[in-house]
Amino acid sequence: MDIRQRLLAAFDLEHKEHLAAIRTALREAEATGDAPDLVDIHRRAHSLKGAARAVDLPEVEAISHRLEAAFIAVQKGGIALDPVTVGVVRRSLDAIEDLVGWSLQGGGEVETAGVLADLDALAAGRIGGPIPAAISAVPTRNPERRPARQRDGATEADTAALVRIAAQGLERLSETASALLPEVEAQAGLGEQLRAMRQEWRALDRAWRHLRVQIGRGAAADALDGRGALPALMAFERRFRALGGALDTAHRSHDRLLWSMRRWGGGFQQDMRRLRMLPAENQLSGLGRMVRDISRTEGKEVEVDVRGLEVEADRAVLQRLKDPILHIARNAISHGIETPAERLALGKRPAARVTIAASVEGARLRLRIEDDGRGLDRAAILRKAAERGLIDADELSSTDELPLERLTEFLFHPGFSTASHTTELAGRGMGLAIARREVERLQGNLTIADRPGGGTAVIIEVPLSLLSQRLVFVAVQDQILAIPSADVVRLRTAAAETLFSGVGTPMIRIGEEEIAVTSLAALLGMEAPVVPSAERGLSLVVVRAADRRLALAVDRFIATRETVVTAAEETGLDAGRYLGTVLMDDGGPALVLNIPGLMPLPGSTLPAPARPAEEVTPDRAHILVVDDSITTRTLEKSILEAHGYRVTLCVDGREALERLSEGMEVGLIISDVEMPRMDGFALLQAVKADKRLAEIPVILVTSRASDEDRERGLRLGADAYIVKTRFDQNELLAGIRRLL
């Protein structure tokens, strides 16, 4: 890096500090009505001018010089610090930020002639009027004002040297660290096996001691007869004792090594996580400039306030959030923010404000993007929803106001737009749909709410890192499911008799809060459990989504651990219900639930947490799944059971045919093609050749995508042929419903 690049990097930090301080002072003055510290603002403008000269940025120097002159005029009482003056100052600050960004990152040329002309007119008194008497005196510096952050010279001197590495290398190293963690935990299962072997050996030892007494008596009698069995028994006992000692030693060594692996493996994982973590400013610092550019193309004036960029998150997460934020900003500027003339007519400031605030809550990064525009046009949204058939006439004519969560869900439908005409920024109805899809790929969620005081707020919550997540594992009807710990408020056991009836919904009181209770099984579309006896305990997972709470009844709690989540899009799962999958110790997958996606909308009826014991269980369609992959079998079983089907699994075509020949009745068969012993084509041919089985529909789900294989399957009698590489669970479920 040459000397100018170093100076520019230093100026980048310095100018951001000065701009942020001036903007904050002006914002606080507007909010409180008090005069800002004009001495400090003037000093910062002067510092900007000198620093810009040092790095050879003449345009920034020119604007800073005129800003300095304008603030001198305000201090002397020549011009008022009114909304017009503040507007000129803000446009000048935006121009400085754009010029520095253009110098560092490249981009289009920045137009400065208009800004310079406005500043000259301001300093000459041709813009604005005399300063009001109420703020004519320059305030003294507030002694309680926090000083600007100073750089610690010692800290700078001690900063470690930086090295540059390829991003792909870092990703591969991260994948290695992620793969190591489950392997370490799998060793715990081996420890349990060793412990069980030790217990079994001790039981054998006790039996041997008892048996030895009896054998010893007989051996002594044999020795008198000269048979000599006693030496052989003693040799056996020595070997038996040696085996026990070796087992004890192996168990102790394994425990010691497991502890060491967990310590060093966990440390490696944490080091990799820290290595990938960067301040949000590293990736999102240019958002203000981008949003202002967008607003100018629409002829609107927008002040952008970006906060909290000191929080840290995974580099990959931050990179992938830029596009969703820009889609949301475009949507706000096009639909929500009025033109300066419209805002003045409504009694608002001509410049709208867009705030982007980053914060960390638990293990999640939270981004709130809000504007002070006109807010959601409920009537237009409802009209468009009715036109597209997303809402029926009864709901549209109902006097009850549609819940906000239900209303905003319409906005995420692809192609849904309330714009009267299509422009470069709006009208296609894809922005919010794309933003939510990308956030879901990050295993997060996106919601829209009204902003207090008018306008709209969009909230994005994503994991701080995709390297691994802490999950709470629970059992539900022979399935192991996982819930991100960031969505869990608490785990609680409670007696069934402590539930009380709310408005048609069972409730439980936890602390000062009354929380609705439902069964996780029923929420997933499975059969609700039988009502427990009054004295029996309920296992409840209290979860949250935004400000809402819900208690989910599960069969039992399993464990809490840190592990790697494979995204839903990679396994064909519904991202609205599942974040993805994780591998268990036995090699099988467990589904990770998307709690915000599962949470019922306000006002909707919750499924009952349990069903009466005497209630007759409705017949459920029985589906046979045939696949040699344990992962595929388990995923398909979970998906199908979540939609109310009974499922039987077979590892290959021969086992499936044997089960069918034994009289097992099924309504449908889903089979892989490539399997050992008997492949899917052979199974299909055998089923269709058997008069007793020929009417059973068969769906082939395979990685074979060629037209030849597809035609062969359909020629042999397959009722549907789904290619795994473009596997869509909705396509599979639609095919099942059609065939059943």
How would you sum up this structure in a few lines?
The chain has 740 residues and is an alpha/beta fold.
How much helical structure, as a percent, in the residues? 40-55%
- Total DSSP helices: 23
Arithmetic mean pLDDT: 77
Number of strands: 24
Question: How is the largest sheet built, in terms of strand order?
Answer: 16-8-9-19-18-17
Uncertain runs are: 128-161
Radius of gyration: 34 Å
Please identify the structural class as seen in this structure: alpha/beta
Query: Hey, roughly how much beta strand do the residues contain?
Result: 15-25%
Description of the molecule:
With 740 residues, the chain is of the alpha/beta class. Helix content is 47%, strand content 19%. It has a 6-stranded mixed beta sheet. Strands 10-14-15-13-12-11 form a 6-stranded mixed beta sheet. It has a 5-stranded mixed beta sheet with strand order 2-4-5-7-6. The protein starts with a helix and ends with a helix. The model is unreliable at 128-161 (pLDDT under 50).
